[in-house]
Amino acid sequence: MEIIVTSVFVQDQDKALKFYTETLGFEKKQDVPVGEFRWITLVSPNDPDGTELLLEPNNHPAAKEYQQKIFTDGIPATMFGVADVHKEYSRLMKHGVKFNMEPTEMGEVTVAVFDDTCGNLIQIMQK
């Protein structure tokens, strides 16, 4: 068994697609109409056949409430691995990304947390 798709709730699929591709650097893998929404998945350019990230609409009341509560409590919705947190932090800051936590060492890892502008906090981590 393997993880093939994971998702993150987003308030606006178009805005999320732009942020996750243009700012973060992911590549669009699928963009398929599904009723009033779309099945939009992204992949890492380093692993185009790897795990896909689904930009899931938060239109269901439970999804919206969950997203708002974890954001308010400062809990990241997901985590992405990076080779160098400090370098990625600097790159994203130049793109206007707002960080809630600057790069911080926590034992054997260094993490930082930013706002994805789509209702989520996202953590980046360097091992």
UniProtKB/TrEMBL annotation:
SUPFAM superfamilies hit by this protein: Glyoxalase/Bleomycin resistance protein/Dihydroxybiphenyl dioxygenase
Record-linked Gene3D superfamilies: 2,3-Dihydroxybiphenyl 1,2-Dioxygenase, domain 1
Species name: Salibacterium salarium
Domain VOC intervals: 1-127
Protein name per the record: VOC family protein
Any Pfam family matching the protein: Glyoxalase
PROSITE patterns linked to this entry: VOC (PS51819)
